[in-house]
Task: structure prediction
Amino acid sequence: MIHHELVIVGGGPAGLAAALGAYEEGLRDILILEREDQLGGILNQCIHNGFGLHTFKEELTGPEYASRFIREVLERKIPYKLGATVIDVSKDKVVTAVSQEDGLLLIQADAIVLACGCRERPRGAINIAGSRCAGIYSAGTAQKLVNIDGLKVGNEVVILGSGDIGLIMARRMTFEGAKVKAVLELMPYSSGLNRNIVQCLNDFDIPLYFSHTVVRIHGKDRVEGVTVAKVDDHLSPMMDTAFEIPCDTLLLSVGLLPENELARGCGVELSRVTSGAIVDENMMTSLEGVFECGNVLHVHDLVDFVSEEARNAGRSAARYLHKEISSDAEEIEIKTSGGIRYSVPQKILRNGDFSPIQFKMRVNNVYKNVEIVLLVDGEPVARKIKQIVTPGEMETLLAKEESVRRIKEGKEVEIALRRRG
Amino acid sequence: MRELICICCPLGCHIKVDDSDMADLKVSGNSCPRGAKYAKDEVTCPKRVVTSICPVEGGEIQMVSCKTKDSVEKRLIFDVLREIRGKRLLAPVHEGDVIVPDVMGTGVDVVATKTVLRRNDG
Result:
């Protein structure tokens, strides 16, 4: 068994930023484990632009955004292994990985950052009737087949789900010569960005049907069409509204799930809302010395936020190894109310560290003219006014030093959404 | 009359532009000045950055991703894509390499957005 002070699981945007964060805190014994043949994660196949506006004040494509971080990791000579899949993390921080080069690899770590991202919700999770014919892909799989492997996925396409990946793929497929016949969204609103609805659908006259879903897939060897129906207020299909769309391809963009098998395996406490770990302000999970960040913690919409969060997690891991922080303190639960589904971090440690804390959260519906308020024992200590909040856009609220002091000296802490006016 | 959804912020205002007089566009439905500018630009000369892929021979992967270095007129999107698809590249290709110079006479280059090394180049 080999030993490393810090093992980072995942070499995507989160893992790379975590490594840089740890390096900045003076840590050198770092190992990144990446299961693909290159660093950069999902960004490698996200060839569209719009990444990095917050961080670099310019619009980069996914590969360009990734290469800035990869370059920094290479310059600092931070070690990494490619083609190495982590299959287990134990309670005492033994990381088990498999790779063609090393076979079975056992690493004793002193700290671990889980940065393994998320995966797409598959067909099986949404129960659509029909045979298991060819031509059904998750949107991200189609994206990889087209953008990396240069394969043609289909000619006549229906996309279920109007999340950003579905929208982006509508444009990509159109660019590749396919006809995208419709994008269907179960909800009465899209979880994708307006910008993508305009530039990926409207630009090419691709119809978007809200409150519609696929009730049946036709075809035996290959998809021949789908039956689509409008759904009622309870999201149940109304069969009298059903109609058929002939197509040879169905793309599913029906949500992302944090990939938390490793965390579950070592007994890390998970949130039922985010499906990621429950973490404190240092991004430390319930297992001392194990940290989470990026899409494995909660699904982000902007990679900039992933990088920022992961850098903090990496810094925290280094500070933990340098014995500057610990989880040895009373935990204050952060409650949420008024339409806020969750906050990350979910808990704060009652100690003397009053460094600013960035809370990230999502709402459960579209609300206009609201304020996000951080309350300590009923008293507001931080607030943010928003003209609109939507489930598709992560919100943030910064608690500055004075507010953090009040949180840590208070009893009840809550983040609430309140109507204004 | 043109109807647009503003993309400047999550509000997504539904903006109407009265384009009966192109010299004097009347914008309504916007909540802020950014929306008015967006709507006028969209009606007079909409532009987009085009991103796509181009085949590479002998590379560690089959395709290199690319983009127009600046935005180009929206009506040229499919011409730009055709120009890109007509190219045959040989690995290695480096991020920033020009794939199509001055695409469609726009003065904008199409450049590679990732590095594709030769197979077994390490």
Notes: The CA atoms of residues 367 and 389 of chain A lie 5 Å apart. The radius of gyration of chain A is 22 Å. The mean pLDDT of chain A is 95.
